[in-house]
């Protein structure tokens, strides 16, 4: 019987994703400042760093009930974790959401 054990760190999927989120947010200007901001500081920082606001919004809740919106949001979430330029991710997300709203305007 082999009783060899691994010295590799074992982590859950959630821990792995949290680590990737932290690494991605570190690369986005203003994200750390927004996370540490007080309620008084936040409005000014939100004006200064709209892309960071977007990234924090997506990362804080990537899962939504509505299937199409969820797919759009998960695409943005994955792109943020992959380190794609946040302005590009936000632009694509905004266009996809505009198209979604246009398609379902009469639902």
Please, could you describe this protein's structure?
Helix 5 (67-81) packs antiparallel against helix 6 (86-103). The protein has helices spanning 13-26, 31-36, 42-48, 50-60, 67-81, 86-103. With 107 residues, it is an all-alpha fold. The protein contains 6 helices and no strands. Helices cover 66% and strands 0% of the residues.
Helix-strand topology string: HHHHHH
Q: How much is the radius of gyration in Å? A: 18 Å
Number of helices: 6
Distance from N terminus to C terminus (CA atoms, Å) equals 63 Å
Structural class: mainly alpha
Gross morphology: globular
- Provide the low-confidence segments as ranges: none
Report the strand count: 0
What share of residues is helical?
Answer: 55-70%
Short description:
Helices cover 66% and strands 0% of the residues.
Features:
single chain; 107 residues; mainly alpha; 6 helices
List the SSEs and their pairings.
Blueprint: H1 13-26, H2 31-36, H3 42-48, H4 50-60, H5 67-81, H6 86-103
Helix pairs in contact: 5-6
């Amino acid at each position: 019987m082999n009783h060899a054990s691994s010295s590799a760190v074992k982590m859950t999927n959630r821990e792995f994703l949290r680590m990737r989120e932290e690494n991605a947010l570190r690369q986005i200007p203003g994200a750390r400042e927004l996370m540490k901001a007080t309620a008084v500081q936040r409005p000014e920082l939100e004006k200064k760093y709209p892309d960071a606001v977007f990234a924090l919004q997506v990362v804080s809740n990537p899962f939504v009930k509505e299937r199409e919106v969820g797919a759009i949001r998960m695409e943005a979430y994955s792109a943020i974790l992959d380190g794609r330029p946040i302005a590009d991710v936000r632009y694509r997300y905004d266009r996809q959401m505009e198209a979604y709203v246009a398609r379902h305007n009469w639902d």
